[in-house]
Backbone:
């Protein structure tokens, strides 16, 4: 690798590559169709068998070659009933996947020419694709974080409100799980630990009384702490990895988004965790996110019926 190029070739995805692969809305629709129904072969509900479907001119639909029944690749996805250009959607996906600290809705508005409300909604929908269920293995580090400024910096109607609490667990040189929790008590934190960690794992943390309770979970966890009032590294015991992740999130929110409401904080944590967990993957991050565009975030009644059946659709 060129010593002046810090990004491996496999991870690069330039604007020129994007323009070649997705030059127009038809190319984007074809990508979604091929991801859901390779070769255009899908279950025709009228015929009751899997048949080849062909593009309907002027519509985002494909028709069965035998009976003409239509299927809609965008149905149930984040593009469902959206009047925004598909290529604009894919451009926003590329921008959100190519940044490290985030991109604001105002920047999306300037880049794409859509209204601010449209940009904000598009980003909100794309963040739905970034949520994932992850299981970790040891050794891990864990720590809490709080979001929200001091009362002296808040508008008068926001003063007195408690800060939002979050809890993070990260593998060393691996993946991270970040969750919004009601508070930093053991009743809120221990269920997250039990959900994402195996029965036996080495855990590193500071000397928080709450985190000390992981010793008594009935598991075989090995818990090692570091006293931050004396040192930040004690042999293998440190929390620098999870502290680095929280620093990335807080600097991103402060510098790009300025503030995030409690109801949306989890989706923003999902966004940062999604990129963090793929920082070493030898594929463009856009490819990971584009693959998820076929995820059924709001399936129709027909698709819910088909999803519940054993037949492919």
Residues:
């Amino acid at each position: 690798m060129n010593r002046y190029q810090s990004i491996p070739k496999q991870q690069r995805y330039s604007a020129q590559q994007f323009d070649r692969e997705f030059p127009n809305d038809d190319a984007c629709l074809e990508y979604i169709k091929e991801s859901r129904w390779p070769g255009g072969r899908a279950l025709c509900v009228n015929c009751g068998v899997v048949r080849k479907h062909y593009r309907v001119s002027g519509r985002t639909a494909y028709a069965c070659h035998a009976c003409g029944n239509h299927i809609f690749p965008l149905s149930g996805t984040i593009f469902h009933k959206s009047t925004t250009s598909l290529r604009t959607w894919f451009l926003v996906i590329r921008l959100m996947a190519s940044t490290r600290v985030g991109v604001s809705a105002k920047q999306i508005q300037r880049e794409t020419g859509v209204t601010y409300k449209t940009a904000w909604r598009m980003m909100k929908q794309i963040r739905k694709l970034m949520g994932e269920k992850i299981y970790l293995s040891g050794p891990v580090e864990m720590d809490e974080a709080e979001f929200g400024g001091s009362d002296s910096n808040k508008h008068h109607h926001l003063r007195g409100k408690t800060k939002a609490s979050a809890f993070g667990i990260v593998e060393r040189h691996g993946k991270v799980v970040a969750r919004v929790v009601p508070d930093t008590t053991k009743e809120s934190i221990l269920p997250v630990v039990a959900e994402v960690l195996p029965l036996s794992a080495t855990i590193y943390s500071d000397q928080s009384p709450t985190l000390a309770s992981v010793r008594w979970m009935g598991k075989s966890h090995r818990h090692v702490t570091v006293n931050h009032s004396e040192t930040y590294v004690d042999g293998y015991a440190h929390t620098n990895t999870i502290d680095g992740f929280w620093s990335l999130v807080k600097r991103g929110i402060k510098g790009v988004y300025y503030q995030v409401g409690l109801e949306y904080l989890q989706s923003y944590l999902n966004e940062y965790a999604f990129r963090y967990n793929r920082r070493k993957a030898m594929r463009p991050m856009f490819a990971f996110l584009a693959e998820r565009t076929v995820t059924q975030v709001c399936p129709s009644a027909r698709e819910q019926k088909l999803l519940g059946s054993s037949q492919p659709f």
Q: What stands out?
A: Confidence is low (pLDDT under 50) at residues 309-313. The first strand starts at residue 41 and ends at 43. The CA atoms of residues 74 and 82 lie 9 Å apart.
